[in-house]
Write a structure and sequence with these properties.
It contains 16 helices and no strands. The protein has 389 residues and is mainly alpha-helical. The protein has one domain.
């Protein structure tokens, strides 16, 4: 279900994208809220597989009880700092992916995002010192991505971007390549917030200074990405071609790190293009897509979609690709180049693959509707050229 064709014991020392299941098994018995959430998920899933509506109904009922138990735990001084409580929002997000469309397809993506925000609230309450030891450390490092994505979506700087949150939890354990990459990704929401603060009524001098300040932040992130890619080159896939052909990764570790390296690059170079003066086109070669062009990374992400939406990647694949895919597709659509259609076609064909489980497709459609709603109501984007959400 979560990652059907991969052994959950097959973990690399440097990055553990599928460590979620082993963490759950270790923490399961530590709090009633987590226990109820896991039982709810299992009961509903069994009902869906067996076609037993009563089991699915019981699963939804247990899920409601798990949410009530979580509220009680948050008010209990003896339970609020339990590692198990940190995992309840993640189980809740998983439940929303699988069964949220059964209850309310319009609210499914928003409910998923609310779980990410709830997880961040619990994390903040513990302070960075609460994530230094064993299980709590593993829960934190494996769970940073959803709150980071939520911050990018609302375009507001994340508290997890502070020095304390990027250092104190690693006082005992060394950082993995994944940890270092998340340290870069968490800096992107602040850049987006700064872009949104640009105002058409600024004087030329004030606007120029503001754009220069944003460009400096982008350049800093670019330098960090380049250093990360150099040090961890062995973890990345380098495509043999930039043509619209599916990208196949050798393993999920390479796939995960490469995807989020490309996603960070997409946002950094997209933001840099918005705040930088337009470049004069001196030759046809200047029109080519380069490694400092957001469009290059959008196309690569689109080419990766079939890999992650392969049924063998299960829920892990869908949740891993959903945000990068949304950003990449919006970039390709708003860029408007005719050749982008082939890249879009690859991604959309995987999206509509009949072998893709209905629950995953429903979740992706809900995420798409949620993003479209944000655009409809005028939430500011990078700009008309990029249109990234």
């Amino acid at each position: 279900m979560y990652l059907p064709q991969c052994s959950h014991d097959n973990r690399d020392h440097f990055v553990r994208p599928n460590n979620f299941t082993s963490v759950i098994s270790r923490a399961y018995a530590r709090d009633e809220a987590l226990k109820l959430a896991v039982i709810a998920l299992g009961t509903a899933m069994l009902g869906k597989v067996q076609g037993e509506e009563e089991w699915m109904r019981q699963g939804r009922k247990l899920y409601g009880q798990a949410l009530q138990e979580t509220r009680k735990a948050l008010l209990d001084a003896n339970r609020v700092n339990s590692e198990a409580l940190l995992l309840v929002p993640r189980i809740g997000a998983l439940f929303e992916i699988l069964f949220g469309a059964d209850m309310d397809p319009i609210m499914q993506a928003q409910s998923w995002r609310s779980h990410a925000e709830g997880e961040l609230a619990i994390i903040k309450a513990r302070t960075p010192y609460g994530f230094q030891d064993d299980l709590s450390h593993q829960i934190y490092v494996d769970g940073r991505l959803p709150p980071i994505i939520a911050a990018i979506r609302i375009r507001k700087a994340s508290v997890l971007d502070s020095v304390e949150w990027k250092t104190i939890p690693w006082d005992i354990y060394p950082k993995t390549p994944k940890d270092s990459l998340m340290d870069i990704l968490v800096g992107i929401p602040e850049v987006l917030e700064d872009i949104d603060s640009l105002h058409p009524k600024f004087s030329d001098a004030i606007e120029a200074a503001a754009r220069a300040s944003i460009a400096i932040k982008c350049k800093k992130l670019e330098t960090q990405l380049q250093y990360w890619a150099t040090v961890h080159e062995w973890t990345l896939l380098h495509p043999d071609t930039e043509e619209p052909a599916e990208i196949a990764f050798s393993d999920i570790l390479t796939a995960y790190l490469t995807l989020y390296y490309w996603t960070a690059s997409l946002f950094v170079y997209g933001a840099l293009a918005v705040v930088s003066p337009p470049k004069a086109v001196a030759s046809p070669q200047a029109l080519l897509t380069t490694s400092t062009d957001a469009l290059l990374y959008a196309r690569r992400i689109a080419r990766s979609v079939p890999y992650f939406l392969n049924p063998s990647c299960g829920i892990w694949g869908a949740t891993t690709i959903s945000f990068p895919m949304g950003a990449a597709l919006l970039c390709l659509i708003h860029n408007g180049k005719e050749e982008n259609k082939a890249y879009l076609g690859l991604a959309l064909a995987a999206w509509h693959n009949p072998a893709l489980p209905c629950a995953i497709r429903d979740f992706l459609n809900s995420m798409r509707r949620d993003a479209a709603g944000e655009l409809k109501y005028g939430r500011p984007r990078f700009g008309g050229e990029l249109g990234i959400f």
